[in-house]
Amino acid sequence: MPLIDDLEVSASREELERRRFLGLLGSGALGLAGLGTLIAGVRYLEPDVLYEEDERFTVGRPETIPVGTLLVARTRKVYVVHGPRGFYAISAVCSHFGCVTRHTPGQARITCPCHGSSFDLTGNVISGPAPSGLVHLKLTLEHGLLIADASCPVPSDTVLEV
Ligand code: FES
Questions:
Q1: Edge-to-edge strand list for the sheet holding 86-91
Q2: Helix, strand or coil for residue 65?
Q3: pLDDT tens profile 85-121
Q4: Residue 97 alpha carbon to ligand 1 centre in Å
Q5: Ligand 1 atom closest to Cα of 94?
Q6: pLDDT tens across 115-159, in order?
Q7: 160: which DSSP letter?
Q8: Which residues of 30-66 are buried (b: 16+ CB within 10 A; e: fewer)?
Q9: Which of 34, 87, 107, 157 is most deeply buried (CB count within 10 A of its CB)?
Q10: CA distance 79 to 48
C-alpha cells in the first residue's frame, strides 16, 4: 500500500513531465517560427525574377542548308527559310489567336490548325482569318553559324545574305 509521501512524489513527477513536455513543445514552436522567418528572410534577399529561356538559338551552318529549304525549330516556334535572296526567320505563331502553325514538307504554304489561316513561305497571309502575316525574326551570322532570335522581330523584308 503506497504511503502518502509516495503519492505526492508521484504527482510531482507527472507535473514535471507535463512541464517538460510543454517546454519542449514551446521550444519546438519557437524553433519552427524562427526557421520560417529565416527562410522568408533568405527568399526576400534573393531577387524575385522570372528567368526565361534564352530565345536565341543556333540554326546551323548556312552552307549546309540548300536554297529552298524550310527548317522548323518546333520547340522555338520558328521557321528558318533559305530563300532565293538569302535566309530569313519567321515566327510559327499565328497572328490570329496565337496557335502554332504547321508546315508540311514539300508544300508552299504554312497552315494554322485552329481556324484555318494559311500563309505563304514568306509569312504573308494567303487566307484568313489571320489579320496579318507571320512575324519575321532576327537572324544573324556568328562565327559561321546562323543564329535566330525568337524574341527580336524585324521588318518583313529583312533577309540575311550569306
Ligand atoms: S489562331 Fe490561327 S487562324 Fe486562328
A1: 56-60, 145-154, 136-142, 86-91, 78-83, 70-73
A2: coil
A3: 999 999 999 999 999 999 988 889 999 999 999 999 9
A4: 5
A5: 2
A6: 999 999 999 999 989 999 999 999 999 999 999 999 999 998 888
A7: B
A8: eeeeeeeeeeeeeeeeeeeeeeeeeeebebeebeebe
A9: 87
A10: 33
Type of residue numbered 123? G
The amino acid occupying position 113 is P
- Give the cell for residue 148: 535566330
Name all residues whose Cβ lies below 6 A of ligand 1. Answer: 94, 96-97, 99, 112, 114-117, 129-130
**Grid cell at residue 39:** 527562410
The span from the CA of 3 to the CA of 90, in Å, is 95
In sequence order, which residues have a C-beta less than 8 Å from that of residue 50 and are 6 or more positions away? Answer: none
Cell of 42: 533568405
Residues 6+ away with beta carbon under 8 Å from 87 = 62, 65, 80, 81, 139, 146, 159, 160, 161, 162
Q: Which of 93, 96, 119, 127 to mutate to test the pocket of ligand 1 (most atoms within 8 A of CB)?
A: 96
90 C-alpha to ligand 1 centroid (Å): 16
CA–CA distance, 130 with 117 (Å, rounded to integer): 6
